[in-house]
Amino acid sequence: MSLMSVSEVAEYLGVQEIRVERLERENLLVSKDKDDSGKPMFAKEDVQKYKEFAERIGGI
Question: Is the full-model pTM beyond 0.70?
């Protein structure tokens, strides 16, 4: 399992980092771990699935 940081997820999804943090807080994107500074880390597979789902329902 490959983990992505908040900034990597934001870049991949084309959104701001604050949006990624909000998605995690609202349990729409579930973090798998925390980095050294306490920020969430996400499984790459979960991020890809979320992006595909969001695109199907009209965007992120």
Answer: yes
